[in-house]
Amino acid sequence: MWPSRRRTPTVTCIACGTSVPRDEAREYDKYGDRWDRDGKAFEYLCKPCDRACCHHSRAGLEELLVEIGAGERSQEEFLTWYVTTVERRYGRLEER
After folding, report:
1. What distance in Å separates the CA atoms of residue 4 and residue 21, rounded to the nearest whole number?
2. Is residue 73 within 8 Å of residue 85, measured between CB atoms?
3. 84 SS3 class
4. b/e sequence 57-78, b meaning 16+ C-beta within 10 Å
5. Burial class of 20 by CB neighbour count within 10 A (0 to 12, 13 to 18, 19+)
6. Is the pTM of this model over 0.70?
7. Could you tell me which of 18, 7, 74 has the C-alpha nearest to residue 47?
8. CA 72, 75, 80, 83 torsion: positive or negative?
9. What distance, in Å, lies between the first and last C-alpha atoms of the chain?
């Protein structure tokens, strides 16, 4: 027997773990390019978790994290390196 076309598949929110119908979720693409669908498998966020996320561009973030050794340092050391590197490149927030 064929599945009903009206049946909505369930997906799991990667932030909170809640199972929600697919039409009540938002696609999440860790590369920030959800429009290029070739060969991709998407993860999902429930609508409340999606609203809580920052939707600013992540361009260059992955390269920066690799450069400063994310995952190779303690959290305190990583945050110090991150803030120092970002301030050196873009200036302090108070200077803007």
Report:
1. 14
2. no
3. helix
4. eeeeeeeeeeebeeeeeeeeeb
5. buried
6. no
7. 18
8. positive
9. 62
Integer Cα distance of 83 and 75 in angstroms: 12
Q: Read off the amino acid at residue 52.
A: A
Q: Which residue's structure tokens are 């938002």?
A: 26
3-state secondary structure 63-78: HHHHHCCCCCCCHHHH
In this structure, the number of other CB atoms found within 10 A of the CB of residue 13 comes to: 20
Q: What are the tokens at 60?
A: 């260059």
Per-residue pLDDT in tens (0 to 9) along the chain, 96 residues = 555 565 669 999 999 999 999 999 998 877 666 677 777 778 899 999 999 887 777 788 889 999 998 889 999 999 999 999 999 988 887 755
